[in-house]
Design goal:
mainly beta, Immunoglobulin-like, 2 helices
């Protein structure tokens, strides 16, 4: 009995300390996001300066799309700053299968450079994926720190 309670308590504590992804308008179903450098048991993702951060998102679109574009932004207080994206085209550079079909699972996968010139601060990162009509497929934000 005590062993069961211990496992339950550890499970609750790890859930409390996990990074919280806040939805900001996602329309996709079955959305699961994994960020490299951000294990499940931390409350803030930590990105080392001068290295790459990996992103993987699996989802099922609620509508078909021809093309998609990814956008990453950082919020510091009330200021939003777009991360410069060398290749924002999600179909040719982030692994999406385009055209995307209604109800068929997709995986978005890529890396973003965390430049050494970025200030070492805490930020709120927003990940967005838009279709060719500007409709939001994915919009999630999470706390991060550039170290």
């Amino acid at each position: 009995m005590q062993g069961s309670l211990l496992f339950l308590l550890l499970g609750v504590l790890s859930a409390v300390n996990a990074v919280i992804f806040k939805d900001c308008g996602s329309t996709a179903k079955n959305l699961n996001i994994k960020i490299g450098g951000c294990p499940d048991a931390v409350s803030v993702c930590r990105f080392p300066s001068g290295q790459n951060a990996s992103i993987e998102a699996t989802f099922t679109p609620r509508s078909s799309f021809q093309n998609a574009t990814i956008k990453l932004a950082a919020s510091v207080g009330v200021i939003d700053i777009d991360f410069p994206m060398k290749f924002p085209e999600a179909c040719s550079h982030w692994g999406l299968k385009c055209p995307g079909k209604l109800g068929l699972p997709q995986t978005l996968r890529g890396e973003v450079s965390v430049e050494s010139s970025y200030p070492k601060i805490k930020i709120e990162v927003t990940l967005q994926l838009f279709d060719e009509k500007g409709e939001t497929l994915i919009c999630k934000s999470f706390p991060a720190e550039i170290k």
